[in-house]
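QA checklist item 7 of 12: single-chain prediction sanity check.
[x] sequence parsed
[x] length recorded as 120
[x] structure emitted
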Amino acid sequence: SDDAVQVLEDVIPVNSVDLMQIFFPDPWHKKRHHKRRLIQPDFVSLAVSRLSSGGHMHLATDWEPYAEHMMDVLSATEALENVAGDRQFSPRPESRPETKFERRGHRLGHGVWDLLFTKR
């Protein structure tokens, strides 16, 4: 996550990104490692600052507890609005490529959760 933060801070201008996609970030399953998760309030705040007005943030995960955590963090971010409605996950967009993590999740019987938010 440090690399992502550095790129956002040093390379990506404020209000310049129309679509930010974060697909299947490491869920850090163990509770003691949750602090290492990419999707945390400080990271989301930084990412949102790089989104243009009306820009979209699209996340996906195959780990339900992380999906709920992502929903909590994004829903609590005042500058974001959930495209699917309050606390609703989005249907999988046809435009999202199927990743090896998604295929693995399906093979293991996991669901896949998409979150699509727009910057107000």
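[x] summary fact logged: The chain has one domain: 2-119.
[ ] second reviewer sign-off
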